[in-house]
Amino acid sequence: LLSICYWRHRGDPLIFSVLFFVSILTPFVIGDLSYSIPEELKRGSIIGNVAKDLGQDLNTFSLRKARVDSEGNRKRYCDVNMNTGDLIISDRIDRESICGKKPSCIVKVDLVLENPLELHRVSLHVQDVNDNIPKFRVNKIEMEIRESSERGNRFSIEEAHDADIGQNAVQRYMLEKNDNFILSVDSNKVELVLENKLDREKQREINLLLTALDGGSPHKSGTVVIHVTVLDANDNAPVFTQAVYKANLPENSPPETIVITVSASDADEGVNGDVTYHFAHLSDQDISLFSVDLKTGQVKVTGVIDFEEISSFEMKVQAKDGLGLTSYAKVLIDVNDLNDNPPYIYVKSLSNPIPENVSPGAEIGIINVQDRDSDKNGQVRCNIQENVPFKLVPSIKNYYSLVTTWELDRELVSNYNITITATDEGSPPLSSSKIVQLSVADINDNPPVFEEQSYSAHMSENNKPGSTLCSVSARDPDWRQNGTVIYSLLPAEVNGASVSSYLSVNGDTGVIHAVRSFDYEQFRSFKFQVMARDNGSPPLSSNVTISVFISDVNDNSPQILYPTLEGSSFMTELVPKAAHGGSLVSKVIAVDADSGQNAWLSYHIVKATDPGLFVIDLHSGEIRTQRDILESDSMKQNLIVAVKDNGQPSLSATCSMYLLISDNLAEVPELKDVSYEKNSKLTFYLIVALVSVSTFFLTFIIIILGLRFCRRRKPRLFFDGAVTIPGGYLPPNYADVDGTGTLCSAYNYDTYLTSGSRTSDFKFISSCNDNTLPADQTLNKAPAEFADPFEALEAPGEVGYLCLFWDLIRIFCLFH
Ligand SMILES: *[C@@H]1O[C@H](CO)[C@@H](O)[C@H](O)[C@H]1NC(C)=O
Ligand SMILES: *[C@@H]1O[C@H](CO)[C@@H](O)[C@H](O)[C@H]1NC(C)=O
Ligand SMILES: *[C@@H]1O[C@H](CO)[C@@H](O)[C@H](O)[C@H]1NC(C)=O
Prior knowledge:
Blueprint: H1 2-8, H2 13-25, E1 33-38, E2 46-49, H3 50-54, H4 58-63, E3 67-69, E4 78-81, E5 86-89, H5 95-99, E6 105-113, E7 118-127, E8 140-146, E9 154-157, E10 170-175, E11 181-186, E12 189-194, E13 205-214, E14 221-231, E15 239-240, E16 244-250, E17 258-261, E18 264-265, E19 276-280, H6 284-289, E20 290-292, E21 298-301, E22 312-320, E23 326-336, E24 344-350, E25 354-355, E26 363-370, E27 380-384, E28 390-394, E29 399-404, E30 415-424, E31 431-441, E32 449-450, E33 454-460, E34 468-471, E35 474-475, E36 485-489, E37 493-494, E38 497-498, E39 503-505, E40 511-514, E41 525-534, E42 541-551, E43 559-562, E44 572-575, E45 584-587, E46 589-591, E47 602-608, E48 614-616, E49 622-625, E50 636-644, E51 652-661, H7 669-678, H8 680-711, E52 751-752, E53 763-764, H9 775-780, H10 782-785, H11 798-815
Parallel strand pairs: 1-7, 8-14, 16-23, 25-31, 33-42, 44-51
Antiparallel strand pairs: 2-5, 3-6, 4-5, 6-7, 9-12, 10-13, 11-12, 13-14, 15-18, 17-21, 19-22, 20-21, 22-23, 24-26, 26-29, 27-30, 28-29, 30-31, 32-35, 34-40, 36-41, 37-38, 39-40, 41-42, 43-46, 45-49, 47-50, 48-49, 50-51, 52-53
Helix pairs in contact: 7-8, 8-11
The structure holds 2-acetamido-2-deoxy-beta-D-glucopyranose (NAG) (3 copies).
GO molecular function: calcium ion binding
Subcellular location: Cell membrane
Transmembrane segments: 12-30, 682-707
């Protein structure tokens, strides 16, 4: 009952004292004693009067040597005061140390009395006193809570400890007011409950004061600081300072040039805030050109920046934090052009070689100029060197036509090295040049040109066939076959025959050969033309005239026309017996086909029957009597006359002249016979010839006389030019008296007759077309056709006509 009372009034000393005294007063306690005491009583504090409680008086009590024994080594918590018989506290009684958390704490003490020995057990019920404060194990509780923690998450906290028991132990907790946490306490645990989410970036750490309160009276409390560290969750992506970074970069910037620095910040910390920079989706090319520093965000050049390749870059830079949150920014890099590309000249087309006859202004090539730089750096001017017959004409952008400015002449300049220079307008300007080689193709535009305007060649007659006459040469400056000269004779006729039968020309060398031997007497000079032709197509040619002069060689002996050759007995001159000295008897007529000195004839009497009787004129061939004819002179006189020319060596011919000194032909009978017998047939022809000639002459004379009388002394018709040379003297050069011109002179055949009177000097002219020429042939036939020299006389003078007529009649009579 006491115990119950005690428990019910624990901690209330007044109530306790009352109960205590009740118990003492009641004669209840036998044997064992029991006391209830609060813990932590001071030493000497009286627990109870054991003497009394045991019913002993104090004397006996002390005599019996009452004492407190403790079992073994245990502490004796109390002692007996012998004077009072009180049980007093001798040692500190700490309930917590003796009993811990046991709800009832009883300290047993043995009270020993001697004489007789009595043992009384005293039970001390130690009552708890609120002498301990609630205590946390540490002063500060460190907690790390991730900011990503969700609402309602619970975080346990170690409870506070109070050594006291019961009401004196921890009864409740209080959490300092805060934004994030509330406290949840239940029977066995204390927890922080997250009510609002944490944000590390706002508040990195939170200090919470937690107070534990016990139930004692007065309350005791203990506190702890809960230090909550908000752990970072990677909830912040890096943020670039700019969304777009722009930079200008000159091209050809060397590697390691810093273009721009990008920068991103991450509100997270640690790994979560470690920003690294990368390029995001970059082409392979750009990757090799730029790099971004992982840590610093410097964008650097790593390759060759060529404006002409790429003029601007757009890249995305990624900023990434440690756990992989990323953000992006754009980097725009504009490359600035530098004048680093010289212009290039491309020959797009070229007609090479160019024919030299292209008209000025003809397009012969197309030039293209390219400069990879831009703007001014890429604007190109194109020039061509001066002094060439070409120019550049701008056509569509950056294209130029190469055109000729004036006419080309391969023969002057056959090759051109045209230097085309292109310069851009950058600063400094760049330029380049190209040499275009052009050759001029030949056109057959030059005819061969003879070195001389005309050629003349001199050649002696009777040359050997094949001998070289002369050589011509022509030049043609054209190229190859266009300039290859071939010589040929132009077809023409020389003296009625093709020129090629006289001459040949070497086609390659231009050397002209005589094909046959020339005869001065046939022609003295002639002209022909040689053509020089080149081998082009069409060929060009030019002609040159070559005059050939044939010089005379004394190859013709004089020909005696009258008297005819020796042996013809009937050529007899009658000399009147009454002829006085110096009278003209006859005349030797000779011709020489040569010319000049070679035809200058002289006459000599080499033998005479009577050398003193007749004399011959050296030059005219006139035979005259030297003295009067005497009766004693022989009737028949015979003269042998030599005719010599003046050539070196001189050639000569002789003839016999029969002279009959008589007044009557009948006195010469043998002449008659011979003529009759030998010439009976001839006589017939002669008669016919004479009749016709007589008729012709009569008619002619009538016409002449008629003309003469009607027109009063008209000049001589066609004989003017003919009768020019005085008898007896032949000038050395008398060719070409024929007025009709050139080649005909070659055909001239001059015959000089000398007769007794000057008026009978004749010159025989045969027409160009008259083929009477080959002198030797004609003269050899002379006996038949020139039986009478007068027959050849077609153009006598007026008096001569009458004489001629008379003579003809005389000859006619003679034959009969
Ligand atoms: C052009 O150039 C070529 C080669 O360099 C050279 O052989 C030739 O002589 C030059 N021609 C002229 C006309 O300069
Ligand atoms: C000669 O000239 C002609 C045009 O007249 C030309 O066609 C030809 O090619 C030239 N020959 C040479 C070898 O140059
Ligand atoms: C040369 O003569 C020939 C023939 O008479 C003629 O066809 C040609 O045209 C002449 N050439 C010249 C350049 O006179």
